[in-house]
Every structure is written in C-alpha cells, then in structure tokens.
C-alpha cells in the first residue's frame, strides 16, 4: 500500500503586503498556513483567511517554539524590521525548520542572511522591478524571472511570426539555445511539449535559458 505523502505546512512571519500576498496565495492553493505578526491590525485582517493567525514576536525563541514553528516545513520571513528579520531567520534555522525563505531589502542584507543560514533570498522590489521592465520591452513578454545568477525563465505569448509553426520549425532552440519547458493553451498547460506541437496565436510559451540567450530572444519577440 502506497502511503500518501503529507502536504507541506507553511508559516509566514510578517504580514505586510509581501507576506500577506505569499500567505494568501499558499492558502488559495490549498496549503495550511500560519501567519505571524506583531501588529494586531494585520492579524485581525487575515483572521478569517488563513488556517491560523497569531500576534507574536518571532524574534523570541521561546515564542517560536510555543507556536510550534519547528514543525513547519517551510518558513517565509517577510519582516520589514532588519534586526527582527535576521534574528527570526537565525532562530528558525536553529530550531530546525528545513527551509527558510527570507525577504531581503538589498544585496548586503541578502549576503548577511545567507551567512546565518537562510535557504533562499527574495528581493521582492528588485525582482518585481525586473519583471515590470521586461514586460515593458515587448507586448509578447508575459513574465520574466531570474532563477539564478546565470539562468532566466521567460513567459511569452506566441507572436504572429511563429503561429502555425511547430516547435522544430520555430528554430527557437537551435537559434537561441533555449528550451521550451511548457506551453499554456487556454486553461491547459502542457509540460515538456512534443517538438511537433503546432504553436497557436495567443498560446503562452515558458522558456528557460542563460541570461544572454533569453535577452537575444527578447529583442525579436
């Protein structure tokens, strides 16, 4: 008998705009989410939206343990106060949370967070700025995300020049050395699409590749 894998549980510390967005999105996707903030107004605002919301100081180890933070699979630290942000991150790792994702205000802050054990750093303002800028470049670009220092992921709508062609005929892989990892057709998303699949006007292609190759593709779509 195959045992069903337990769904991940998430805790979000700091319920400002960024933290609230993360918490509500996870909740909408069907996951259990605990929200924590020192501001009673933020907590009350989400009281009926999340699985569990509490007013607490997450920079105190005893408080974290009393909340059962050590039992969560992923913790997101979205606290704006620098000291509380870093102390919460450090304590979450010390009590054994497997994955701690932290919002950083700048590169220096990000480096400090890495040194104290943060598993993933999010630069929300920088990343959003990049995505908006790339969206402005072309009407075809739906989204743009830097996955690492060298790799980007871009979502573009199929332009008229590619409509009616299959993936092989589009020459995207051979010309730009990028990979089309998925195609969204209406409400359906096809992962690892067949090379002979025909592209339709309005379809959305999810493309991954090195920054320089993605940039070259951006200039022609």
UniProtKB/TrEMBL annotation:
Which protein, by its recorded name, is this?
TrkA family potassium uptake protein
Highest classification ranks of the organism:
Bacteria, Bacillati, Bacillota, Negativicutes, Acidaminococcales
Q: What GO biological process terms are annotated to this protein in UniProt? A: potassium ion transport
Occurrences of domain RCK C-terminal (ranges): 139-221
Q: Listed GO molecular functions?
A: monoatomic cation transmembrane transporter activity
Q: Name one Pfam family in it.
A: TrkA_N
Write down the InterPro entries for this protein, in alphabetical order.
NAD(P)-bd_dom_sf, RCK_C, RCK_C_sf, RCK_N, Trk_Ktr_HKT_K-transport
Where would one find the signal peptide in this protein? Answer: none
Q: Which residues form the RCK N-terminal domain?
A: 7-122
Species whose genome carries this gene: Phascolarctobacterium faecium
């Amino acid at each position: 008998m195959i045992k069903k894998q337990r769904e991940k549980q998430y805790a979000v510390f700091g319920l400002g705009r960024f933290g609230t967005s993360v918490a509500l999105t996870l909740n909408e996707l069907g996951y259990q989410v605990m929200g924590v903030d020192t501001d009673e107004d933020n907590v009350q605002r989400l009281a009926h939206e999340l699985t569990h919301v509490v007013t607490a100081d997450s920079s105190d180890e005893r408080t974290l343990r009393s909340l059962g933070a050590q039992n969560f699979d992923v913790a997101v630290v979205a606290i704006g106060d620098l000291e509380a942000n870093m102390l919460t991150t450090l304590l979450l790792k010390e009590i054994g949370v497997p994955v701690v994702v932290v919002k950083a205000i700048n590169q220096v802050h990000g480096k400090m967070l890495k040194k104290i054990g943060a598993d993933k750093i999010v630069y929300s303002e920088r990343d959003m700025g990049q995505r908006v800028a790339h969206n402005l470049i072309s009407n075809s670009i739906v989204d743009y995300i830097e996955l690492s220092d060298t790799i980007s992921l871009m979502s573009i709508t199929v332009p008229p020049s590619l409509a009616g062609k299959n993936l092989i005929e589009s020459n995207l892989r051979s010309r730009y050395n990028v990979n089309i990892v998925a195609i969204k057709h209406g409400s359906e998303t096809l992962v690892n699409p067949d090379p002979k699949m025909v592209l339709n006007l309005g379809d959305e292609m999810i493309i991954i590749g090195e920054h320089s190759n993605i940039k070259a593709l951006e200039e022609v779509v």
